[in-house]
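Quick check before the chapter quiz. The format below is the same one you will see on the exam, so make sure you can read both the input and the output lines.
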Amino acid sequence: MKNLFVTLAGYNAWANALLFEHLSELSPEDWAAPRPVNFGSLAGIANHVLLADRAWLFRFTGSGDSPTAIDTIPYPGFADLLAARRAEDARIVAFAQELDPARLTGLLHYHAMDGRPMALPLAAMAAHFFNHQTHHRGQMHALVSECGVRPRDIDLVFYQRELSETKKAEG
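Here is the expected output.
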């Protein structure tokens, strides 16, 4: 399972880098425009994913920021959010690489956003963490398309192909 989570962490960083390239092509108006989706806009979804990632990384590691809400927009400007996203993606990769495989068989004890204590399988929560990112990237990918930008495909298989081609080229 650790190898899977290391792969998903690399994929997350790769997909975010591509998606944010396309997001950077949008006007500030398209970035912030109200849309009929959860979190209300591209800026809202992108901030939500960042905050949720921080919340889960805090739960997994006990370090970093622990947001008290995941439905705010602490980074309304694209450049600031991009810098925060890159930093968080680096933390996610480090988390996956440092993950103790034996720990994956245990429970994750944490507090939900409403303060309730939780104890759920760590492996399942790590899977949820990466699935959550993919879900919201899909929303943003579709919304970018609606704004007239043709984003690259960001499926896991394309990340794997790119890794394979890079390894072949390196020889």
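If your answer matched, good. The chain has a mean pLDDT of 96.
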